[in-house]
Write a structure and sequence with these properties.
Elements: E1 2-4, E2 8-10, H1 18-22, H2 29-35, E3 41-44, E4 47-50, E5 60-61, E6 64-65, H3 73-77, E7 80-83, E8 91-94, E9 97-104, E10 111-112, H4 120-133, H5 154-162
Antiparallel strand pairs: 1-9, 2-10, 3-4, 5-6, 7-9, 8-9
This protein binds iron/sulfur cluster (2 copies).
One iron/sulfur cluster (SF4) binds next to loops.
Length: about 160
């Protein structure tokens, strides 16, 4: 279910990979053009998606994404959806422009609340998502799993760096 951002208390990614397994990734036009002619795209009702192999995204290695900052915008934004229309509780103003932001509570780390008071934690993450949508940012900072140790095992370092 997609809920207005004001009803979200917090969210973080722990690189579980569940969203990659659950969803089919819709591609933007320029993303489709890059992959056109390969076996990695499929068309459904005039929309283009990353083609799954079996039930898996071809870029998911174990739990992790092998594309890092090159992954499709839809993957970078997840669990956020940034829309041009929506209800008042989803309204988010960024540099004088209005967006409507929803959050998919399929992710187990989306924690909901009942009041509409903005959560400071979520505000910065939404700003980063909007900057990605506007093309002001490519690299993920807050919208991704974080290194939790200065000296992780090499295997864990690899895993944490790669995921959404
Ligand atoms: S966004 Fe959520 S579901 Fe997706 S990998 Fe991160 S924690 Fe898992
Ligand atoms: S984040 Fe990477 S592995 Fe996950 S669906 Fe997107 S491209 Fe595939």
């Amino acid at each position: 279910m997609h809920v207005p951002w004001r009803l979200v208390a917090s969210w973080h990614c722990d690189a579980c990979g569940a969203c990659c397994r659950e969803y089919r990734v819709r591609l933007r036009a320029y993303e489709y053009l890059k992959l056109k002619g390969t076996a990695l795209v499929e068309e459904r009702a005039n929309r283009f998606y990353l083609k799954k192999i079996g039930k898996l995204c071809p870029f998911q290695k174990g739990y992790l994404c092998s594309l890092r900052d090159s992954k499709p915008v839809a993957c970078k934004l997840y669990p956020f959806s940034i829309l041009k229309k929506g209800d008042e509780r989803a309204l988010f103003e960024y540099e004088g422009e209005e967006f409507f932001v929803y959050v998919d509570d399929f992710c187990k780390n989306v924690k909901l609340k009942k009041d509409l008071k903005p959560s400071a934690e979520i505000l910065k993450k939404i700003e980063e998502a909007i900057e990605i949508v506007l093309g002001k940012r490519v690299k993920l900072n807050l919208l991704t799993a974080k290194l939790v140790s200065e000296t992780p095992e090499p295997r864990l370092l690899h895993r944490r760096r790669l995921m959404v």
